[in-house]
């Protein structure tokens, strides 16, 4: 039947449009007769009222179900986020020293995104715990390893404090020297490559 096909076609519309259709049909059906007469809609309601009723019931029911699903997904997402933060905070309290040294690099380099060895156990562990996430899927490959750009998961960034990183609030020169001494070993190789590429860039300007 043609009218059934038209109703089915409604479900292909965006949810906002379906809600608007439901609202319009509801107003036409439930507004006082006097108002409908003033709006010159009384004849339309008399002739097609049953269709407005069917469309209203279908679109209203669909809108309610869609709203419930949307609300449920938001609650589910909120619970997942809450559980993740709880688990991540627990993981932050149990970090190994190599993991802490890697996280310190965001502070020492004063960057939101840093490069780390893709094969390193520290990165793998922090990534699996949801503490680090990929900032890009692109990878730089060298003879000494593959490097990937990562960033701290924004959901827990505020929980990574000086205490978590085992850094004193008022460091002495001895503290600074110790922190520099324990920086990840891959930095020397990565800095060498970056400096080499910068030098090639400067040389290229002369040609």
Describe this structure in words.
The protein is mainly alpha-helical. 63% of the residues lie in helices and 12% in strands. The chain is built from eight helices and three strands. It has helices at 2-10, 15-30, 33-38, 42-92, 97-108, 121-128, 173-181, 186-204, and strands at 113-117, 132-142, 145-152. The chain has a three-stranded antiparallel sheet, with helices on one face. Strand 2 (132-142) and strand 3 (145-152) form a beta hairpin. Helix 2 crosses helix 4. The chain is elongated, with a radius of gyration of 30 Å.
SSE map:
Blueprint (H helix, E strand, L loop, with lengths): L1 H9 L4 H16 L2 H6 L3 H51 L4 H12 L4 E5 L3 H8 L3 E11 L2 E8 L20 H9 L4 H19 L3
Antiparallel strand pairs: 1-3, 2-3
Helix pairs in contact: 2-4
